Amino acid sequence: MKIKDIVNRNIVNLTNCEQEPIHIPGSIQPHGFLIGLKEDTFNIDFCSANCEEYIGIPYKELLDKKFEDFFGTDSFNSLKNYISNDQMLSSTLYRLAIEDKTFQCTVHKSGSIYIIEAEPVNIQDRNISEVYDQTSQFLLYMHDTHTLKELCQLVANGTREITGYDRVMIYRFDKDYNGEVFAESVRDDLEPFLGLHYPHTDIPPQARELYMKNLLRLITDINYTPVPIYTIDDTRDKNLDLSLSILRSTSPIHVQYLHNMGVGATLTISLIYKKKLWGLIACHHYSPKNLTPEIRLAAQLQGHFITSQIDLRQSNEEYEVSRKTNEELKKINTFSLTGKDEGKFNDLVKKDGILQLCNAAGVAIVFNGGIYKNGITPTDDEIQDMANWLATYTNNGSFYTDKLVDYLPNKLDMCGQTSGLIYHSLDMDSNNCILWFRPETKTEVNWAGDPNKAIVKDKNGLSPRNSFKLWKETVSCTSKPWLQPEIATAATYANSLQRQINLLIITQEEEKYRKLSELLKETNSELENINWISTHDLQEPLRKIQIISSRILSKETEIPENVHDAILRMNASAGRMQTLLIDILKYTRLKHADDAFEDVDLNKVVKELKEEISETINEKSTVINYEELPVVKGIPFLIKQLFSNLISNSVKYTAEDRNPEINITVSPVPMTYNGKDTGFYNVIHFSDNGIGFEPQFSESIFNIFTKLHAATEYKGSGVGLALCKKIMQNHQGYITAVSTLGEGTTISMYFPIKN
């Protein structure tokens, strides 16, 4: 059996220091020992080199052996019971006894391996009941605090009293994970760190990720010698993820960092808020120090107290801001933009409360190319450029920042007046928006050492910074941060303003359409009068032309043949003109037909028409066949006009080699029109065997004055089928034509089925 250690000797280098694989060091701290059991067999697959020191059995003898062979059947059964009852990583620790030694163990699963980390029960810093009393007392103190800072200070004091560390800090992260010592309890003879800031590089991303997984980390002696972990060399690159381990060995860079600070031992407790790392309880001791698991648990409880109270404390602190901004919101919401004058925006931006609702120094509204502003603002051109950029950047959404120069680095000259910004679009298709501005607020930040020198490279390789001397930085181009109540109130008002603007636009559009409607009504009335007068008055001279021409032809017997033909053509032209004028009158009057719809029996309509135009039908020996037709809802005289036009067309456009035949049929079941979900229709098909037309004219044939044949061949005004289409539209129906040149035409009429 070949055995190897899994120590990661390349754990950090210049290229991976920001992604240092600290979860797989392959070693542990020496204040306990580790064994790893296979999930299926409970055979020992991993163990630390110091097993012999604690239980008198060398690691070589332990590997690949069954757990119960060394620790006994009782310990094996209690371990399986502990695992099956899901007590791993709970506050209840697993007790392991071997000969006269007892160990308290944490157990967790890493992949397919159960990891047992054992520490001897020989440290009695505090009595358990004493720890409980201190925790209970802390709960009483907690109710006496009102702000988050007061609570954190109380937690720092309580944690230091429970654990006995020289320094306890509550460390809070900003949005970029730079840290600030927010509260501190420290030994009197030590320099305080309260208020100091630490760069995000001090705790790199992979370390923050582990703090999210493992809420408690302990280093009992900074000067420890890592204990390697051994395993059976049966697979390539075999390793063990120690993310949840209590004994996990620490990054050499972090150890050096603590050395540089003069620290001897540490305890770190994660503060998780809304599934993010909000901060840490960082405990430092200036000599080696270990804690019992009970005291560690009590310290961890302090962290739970903080995270459970963050919402409440922040709400208390923000309540007054929220109350004031909501009062201003109520005031400003009483101002109405309704009216015709966009100049009201000038009145709005000067209104009391529009700045105070989010405690801004300036405000601007961009609307339809106009800029209305008040307070400390950029120039009109800068506001217009900013509105254009923000509309694109946010996709006409919203945006806020306390450091605009991070997004617009070429606008440094604007920092003085515009470092902070809240933006809300007021239109999805333009740059209309409202913007609030805050000027620059220069602040001085005290860093614990130069944040730009977090990792340095020297002759010994990589090492963390070794200077924690106070380093002051003046922060410019940054405004006072926007508080959540201010951001929320600005968003609420922007939504309210957007609704008012939409109402204003609708009102303006309604006014515009009302005027257009009135103008259209007047125009239509004038056109109707002109149309009636022109068609009515034109018929009189046409009638006279026809009468005079008829008299000449009947009384004058010696008329030259060419003059006779000219008079006949004149008479025919006058007749065609009269027909056209009558059809135009019919067409224009269709839109005014307001007769009530009633049941119309199509069988009766066809029968009446056959009688009324029998002479025309008989003249060309026309045959009209029709099956049982339905009853439709419609205006009787219009439907009669519709069928009359279709029969007349079929008789008119007959083929010379055959007698006209017309077949009127109905579709057997109700249909939809062109597959559209517009309801169901009775479809009447009107087919003839006439001259037909080419398929490309199937739609244009219904346009007014459209004629596909010369007037010398077939008489007509080109209005008949346009009248048919207009009649079908008035009945909320459709009309279509399908034809084959030389064979005939089928006209289909879709009558809606009304309930």
UniProtKB/TrEMBL annotation:
Keywords: ATP-binding, Chromophore, Kinase, Nucleotide-binding, Phosphoprotein, Photoreceptor protein, Receptor, Sensory transduction, Transferase
Domain Phytochrome chromophore attachment site: 147-304
Protein name in UniProt: histidine kinase
Annotated catalysed reactions: ATP + protein L-histidine = ADP + protein N-phospho-L-histidine
Family affiliation: In the N-terminal section; belongs to the phytochrome family.
This enzyme's EC code(s): 2.7.13.3
Pfam families linked: GAF, HATPase_c, PAS_2, PHY
Top-tier EC class: transferase
Record SUPFAM superfamilies: ATPase domain of HSP90 chaperone/DNA topoisomerase II/histidine kinase (SSF55874), GAF domain-like (SSF55781), Homodimeric domain of signal transducing histidine kinase (SSF47384), PYP-like sensor domain (PAS domain) (SSF55785)
Gene Ontology MF terms: ATP binding
PANTHER family, A to Z: PAC DOMAIN-CONTAINING PROTEIN, PHYTOCHROME-LIKE PROTEIN CPH1
Domain Histidine kinase positions: 533-755
Gene3D superfamilies assigned to the protein according to its UniProt record, in alphabetical order: 1.10.287.130, 3.30.450.270, 3.30.450.40, Histidine kinase-like ATPase, C-terminal domain, PAS domain
